[in-house]
Predict the structure.
Amino acid sequence: MGGAENASDARGARSGDARGARSAEAPGEAAGAAPQAPARRAGACGAAPLGAGDGPKILAADVGTGTADILVTLPGEPLENAVRLVVPSRTQVVARQIRAATAARRPVVFVGPVMGGGPDGAAMKAHVAAGLPFIAGESAALTFDDDLDKVRARGVKVVGDAEAATLAAEAIAAEASDPVGTSGPARASDIPATGEIPATGDASWDARPVVVRSGDLDVEGLRRVLQRLGVSPCFDAVCVAVQDHGFTPRGSNRAARFAFWEQALSDRRPLADLFWPADDVPATFTRLRAATALAAELGDGAPVLAADTGPAALYGAMPESGDAVLVNAGNGHTVCVVARDGRLAGVFEHHTSALDGPALERFLRRFLAGELTSAEVREDGGHGAVLAPGALDGLAAPILVTGPRRDLLRDSALALEFAAPHGDMMLTGCYGLLRAAGERGLAGRRRGGTS
């Protein structure tokens, strides 16, 4: 394809072969003739948001259910030389920390801001089911449900954030003075009746709490990793994407999330509009606002740009023409968007765990035919589907597919291209963030002293 900027695994129109293999010899090409360079498709995905030169140093973090994908541009270096990290997402890390506490038969104090749920929530439930105390500050507890009464009903002791911070500080101090637990395991009757550590069950357990910190970005951890790599953790801008259903203590958060998509489509908003400076993140997106605050801490005064993971990945794969059918098959959600002139013209969203390859292909075919309804998708456990009249008129480009679960469509008979912007599919969301940052002028700003 002529460079990493527009690299992709192309699938042409299917003709006889289920995998869409290309003919070994192009029509009209004489046998033995020198092979011709393939023509670049107009508007191919993966337009470079930044070029080489003395540009800004930007950290972009795309936080999903399975991985956190992190990109740091380096001034004076081409984008291909940027620092790239694909690491377990914070919900995976937190889940492992909770499971370790469960295995050690120790209470958990969960403290910090709201973050992404899923694996960490499953670990919390298993911890409580094992008869062990789980204490959470109110903000951290919102990770598990926007209705704190439901969190309490699951066996979590929810306390104020200040009390949770005090308990965490006390636990850390106790751990420092007794790191190997020389006081030995304790029974519930041995815990002082102060209310800090609730007694649950009658099994023997170690009374020393394990502090588990919430948050979609580990600010200090990222700084340490970058420093070990010889990269100063000083940035001209920080961009972050997390998935946010919207604060919904009552009702369906699936419906609330899709209502945002429906409104954006009704307004025919450009995908580029679904990125916000820190102060403009909608109040209902509490998780994204919390992640933005952590990004601001990481940036230490640098401007912050935030987005949902869906638009970030879709924008990273969208061709320059702005006309495309884009699919992001993430570890948590699968989103398909129809874009015309860069504006939303259709959206379908479902949970990836509920899909296999044939099911996803059926949904996509019916969605693109205008036959799929939101009610049908929600009944299947997903979010919804809406397609504007005439959205596909005159659109002949193949479906562009990205995301860590794109293998669901590997045997599809649909005309597909597996998009890999800048040669790196896992960083598609980061490239979407960089693209938006460039369009908003953040890619042209340098702060003094960064290197």
User: Anything to note?
Assistant: The two ends are 33 Å apart (CA to CA).
